[in-house]
Amino acid sequence: MNRFIYPGGGQILEQIDCIGLNKDSSYCRLSDGDSEWGVRTCTPGKDNETSYPILSAPTFSHESGFYADEFDLEIFCKEGETIFYTLDGSIPTTDSNFYQDAIHISDASENENVWSMRKDVSNGYFDGAGYEVPDYLIDKCTVLRAICVDEEGNESAAASATYFVDFDQKEGYQGMNIVSIITDPDNLFDYDTGIYVMGRAYDTSREYDAEQWYADVWWWQTGNYRQRGRDWEKEACLQFFDAEENLLLTKDAGIRIQGNGSRGWVPRSFNFYARNEYDGNNRFEADFFGTRYEPQRITLFAGSDNYLLKLKDYLAATVLSDRGFSTMDYVPYVMFLDGEYWGCYWLIEKYDEEFFAYHYDVDNDNVIMIKESQQGYLALGNEEDEKLYDDMYAFIAGSDLSADANYWKVCELIDVDSYIDYCAAEIYIANLDWPHNNFGLWRTRTAEQGKYSDGRWRWILFDVNNASVMSSKCIELDLFAEVVANDPMFSSMMDNDEFSRKFVSRILDMANNEFLPENINLFLDEYRELMKDPLTKEYERFYGKDTNKLLNFEEELQDIRDFFEGRYLYITDYFENYNGEGTKS
Known about the structure:
27% of the residues lie in helices and 22% in strands. The chain is α+β, with helices and mostly antiparallel strands. It folds into three domains: 2-50, no CATH class; 59-346, no CATH class; 399-442 and 458-576, no CATH class. The strands form seven sheets. A seven-stranded mixed β-barrel has the order 14-15-16-17-18-20-19. A five-stranded mixed beta sheet has the order 6-13-12-9-10, with no helix packed on it. A hairpin with a 2-residue loop joins strand 21 (367-373) and strand 22. Helix 8 (416-428) crosses helix 11 and helix 11 (497-511) crosses helix 13.
């Protein structure tokens, strides 16, 4: 990188080769007129002599990772500097452990449980949810953070590492990726500011909101973990390991709690945010999903309403990934939180402008997304963009689409095949929390060159984990008739013969391909092989060693098998005999 200095006339006075810089640093003259340059702190509006050196972070003799045997770890810094370190996730200060001799790293699972013993992480510990703090030593890793301090008291950034010792002998990790979240414990558990606890927000809500509808629904009650927005984002070091125990990425990033009702449960989901302010890079520089996509935001998803099985969203997104609507990629992970085992999750993409820009080759500044859930409406775009959706919906819902001219106009407004695939999928899996909720669609604001830059609306699939979805109780649920009766847009579209024929053909095609019971059973067999042991470990961690949750796992898995067996017969009979009037003949 070159730095050019120009006089008023545009002539180059001096050209300097600049080194790469991290956040909050500058490459500058050490004093006015000095010929010596160096990396210093930023001094906007002040003389460079008021800056001070930016120290290099310490280095470790062993990289983060998995080790069969215990070992002695050495920490290195420059001559004349001293080292301070912590083992609890907090950023070291000069009041932390002073490094003198090598640190012995062994299997940390023999250490006493700390964070896992807290009951203030959910009201479910006090309100009959069945949660228990573990009465045994859970699996643990060593999380180490260290800083260098020079003779003037200047401190380096913290270096962080995670060490797993003797994990080849532990059950519940086969085939699973692992993420270690290292953050100051106060970021999670502080009464006022911790994002993982009930905290002050809970106590305040009990004082002032006792008459609210959620007062007696423990998982909906307000707590610190229900707070949203950038003010409740905390900095953490994230370390990702693949299923072969290779370190994929070490990343300083922001973390927030994710979800709606599921925020009250444990384990709960996290959103991760890559930002320049944390480490100078606003992307996660790893190919998590095998697509070469390096996202800016990702979610560590705990399963939401399907928290015991953690299957429904993954199943739908995976088997329907080639259909005409968007789905997210899912990768299985186990999470360690400040060194303690914290359950099973899916690492998934997030629908944002970068997702659409990468997967559909569109301009990220040109993306609009409507995402109706309990959190809002316009998810991406400008306030005036909402009118584009309102106008589209009003035209389709209010027009006679049996008239060809009106239907041709609809085909200019939406990708009809995307809408057909999307509605067919939601109806087939019996999603009763749709279409009034949990629907989403996107488009480019203006038409540009490219297959997906035409300004037409296309649909996205998400949040298909509620109790009705893929439930044997809903095998004969006539959701199709309900949607025809209650969704003006879908009802109007079904008035068009071409759309109606395509819809019937498409849902039958899904029945005989993606949702064919033989194919689903193979998928579920593979899922059981991958997830039974990891989920058994999670059940023990959050419900106790004597829990019967494994029985629930087997029952729920069989219930999904039963749903697809029965739903196939119901759907094929229904639509092979469909009379074109919202019911079968």
